[in-house]
Amino acid sequence: MTNRSATGITGCMTFVLAAIALFPCASPAGVPHRQVWAGQNPNAAVLPIGSRPHGKTYEEWSVLWWQWFLPLTVEQYNDCRIGQSDDNVAFLLAGPAACNGKVAPGTTLFFPIANVECSSLEAPPFHGDTPDQRSACAAYWAGFVGTMAVEIDGVPIQNLTSYHVVSPDLRFKVGSDNVFGIPCSGECSGKSSGNGYYLMLTPLPPGSHTIHITASGFGIDTRYSLFVRP
Fold first, then answer.
1. Alpha-carbon span 30 to 148, nearest angstrom
2. What is the pLDDT of residue 83?
3. Count of CB atoms within 10 A of residue 96's CB?
4. Which own/partner contact pairs does 41-44 have at CB distance under 8 Å and 24+ positions apart?
5. How far from 105 is each of 36, 93, 96, 152, 199, CA to CA, in Å?
6. What pLDDT was estimated at residue 4?
7. Sequence-separated (6 or more) residues with CB below 8 Å from residue 86
8. C-alpha pair distances (Å), 99 with each of 37, 78, 115, 131, 211
9. Which residues of the chain have pLDDT under 50?
10. What phi-psi label fits residue 146: left (phi over 0), alpha (psi between -120 and 50 degrees) or beta?
C-alpha cells in the first residue's frame, strides 16, 4: 500500500506483521472531454477502465505511476509531491492526511485509491524473486483494501471496484532515501509488480477543487486541495 514504510509512513503495519507467517512474500503501500464518455460511464469525470487515455492503458499508466512513486524520498512523500508526465498527465499519491497542490489547465489526473506492490529489493513480506511471485503477493495484499471511497468536489465516484488494475512486472530505481526505506547505497535497480485501484480523471476546470480518497483496509484517508490555474 502506498502509505506503508519502514521509515515511519503511517499504515496498517500491525496487520502486516501478523500476516508474515501466513504469506511470507508480499508489499502493500488520471484526453477526451467528459461528453465523449458520458453515455458509457456512470462517472462522467472518470475515464473508463478500458479506455486508452493519451494512448496508454490504465495498466501502462500504473507502471509509470510506480516508476515515479518508488524513487520518492520521505520528504517528497510528506510534501505530497505531484508528478508530471510528458503527456500532460499529473500523478497524485494516496496516503498523507492533507495535500495541497497546483496543476496547469487541461491536466489529466491519475492516482491510486489504494495499491500495493512486491519487489525484488524488499524484505518479506514484500519480497518476490520472480514475476509470478511478485504478482501473486501483490494480488494477495490487494484483497485487504477494505472499503473504498472517492469524492470529487463532494460528488462520490461510483463502482470503485471496477477500476481494478494489475501492473505488469516493471523495472524501477531507488536511492538511499526512498519512500519505502528499501536498503540501498547510492542507486539501486529492482523489479516490481503491482495491484490496486486507480482513477484517471478528465481535466478539472480552473479554480479550487477537493479530492477525498479513503481505503479502510490500508489506513488511507487523504484529502487534496487542488488548484487548477486559469
1. 17
2. 97
3. 18
4. 42/158, 42/159, 43/157, 43/158, 43/159, 44/202
5. 19, 19, 24, 17, 18
6. 60
7. none
8. 29, 9, 18, 34, 10
9. 5-39
10. left
Sheet architecture: strand order including 164-175: 83-84, 89-91, 108-119, 187-201, 164-175
State the cell numbers at 30.
488520471
C-alpha cell at position 53: 487515455
Give per-residue pLDDT as tens, 195-217.
999 999 999 999 999 999 999 99
Distance of CA 160 to the CA centre of its chain: 14
Query: 118: which 3 cell numbers?
Result: 512486491
**Type of residue numbered 31:** V
Give the residue extent of every domain in the chain: 13-228
Whole-angstrom Cα distance, residue 67 to residue 63? 6
Please name every residue paired with 46 in a beta bridge, in sequence order, or none if there are none.
Answer: 201
Percentage of the chain lying above the pLDDT 90 cut: 79
Report which of 96, 62, 77, 89 is spatially closest to residue 166, judged by C-alpha positions.
Answer: 62
- DSSP letter (8 states) at residue 88: S
Question: pLDDT value at position 225?
Answer: 98
Note the pLDDT tens digit of each residue in 126-170: 999 999 999 999 999 999 999 999 999 999 999 999 999 999 999
Residue closest to 192 by CA, chosen among 133, 140, 112, 142: 133
User: What's the predicted TM-score (pTM) here?
Assistant: 0.86
Is the Cβ–Cβ distance between 114 and 220 less than 8 Å?
Answer: yes
